[in-house]
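Q: My labmate handed me this sequence with no annotations at all. I'd like to see what the chain might look like in three dimensions before we decide whether it's worth expressing. Could you predict it?
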Amino acid sequence: MPMVTMRQLLEEAAKGGYGIGAFNVNNMEQIQAIMRAAEELDAPVIIQASRGALQYSELIYLKKLMEAAVERHPGVKVALHLDHGNSPETCKQAIDLGFTSVMMDGSLMADGKTIGSYEYNVEVTAEVVEMAHKHGVSVEGELGALGGIEDGHGAGLAVDDEEHLTDPEQAVDFVKKTGIDCLALAIGTSHGAYKTLRYDKDGNALPPSLALDRIEKIESNLAAAGYPAFPLVMHGSSSVPGELVDVVNKYGGKMKKTMGVPMSDIRFGIERGVRKINVDTDGRIAMTGAVRKVLMESPEKFDPRDWLKPAREALYELIKGKMKDFGQAGHGSEYEAVSLSEMAKRYEAEKAAV
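A: Here is what I predict for the chain of 354 residues:
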């Protein structure tokens, strides 16, 4: 089975009322772990790569790894997504390489750091939609800007920044003017491990305070404007489990006390239209803890396979848990895959009907 478009996955998720994890990758072991979990759980899945990941792995390597993954796991419905594309040129490069979905993050300028104007965001996102839909490729846009920095991407906003949260009154206009397939929201989540500035009297981290009411308002506004069940996206949704951080620190790490997004908040979003949940940091922590454990307990080891295999296994176990929590497990074989060429015809028909 070839890779499928993210739009199809999210539409099916909307019908079933569940979310789909979008997991970031940089190398072969991460792809193997995610695809193994998806196959075992009969789960549709989104594998995504940031610009930083593409620079690390080189575009052609990632493309070939995904081709191998699809061949090895033919029953898995998987979309390959560009995370935080910084320009139409970057998105075009990904489309030409066979990505089935791209994100045009016009909330920031092309440097990936400077906050962009609303007008700029609409212009570049609409440009990418026009280009991508001709190939059947889905497009994610972002309205508002997230806190934190990851892979060199982000404006460095404080995690408690409220000025750049998604404006519920602007969401409908943005969707109409751009034609995007899903909308990433800024509701107080942030990139990276350190998502909170809140601590109790004993110094223990408290979860970030999210503007969950904005999800409800945006869902309501979109439905009233003729966009029922429009897929919403939560970025920066790693939970940063304390037990994973403890493993890292037990074996020589120095991660500070922190807390990510609770599953209760993610579940709140899923019940109100969030269909794509981005997870990166949790996987990094799980793999790092596994590597540290091997190298500290067996310092004589020097074969990379001795620590890459446990790292891959740790990520596999993490991904299985996420897939069950998000509700995507068991839904992969419920529908037939739609090809990119078929999706392109669908986009063309929808455009003609407007």
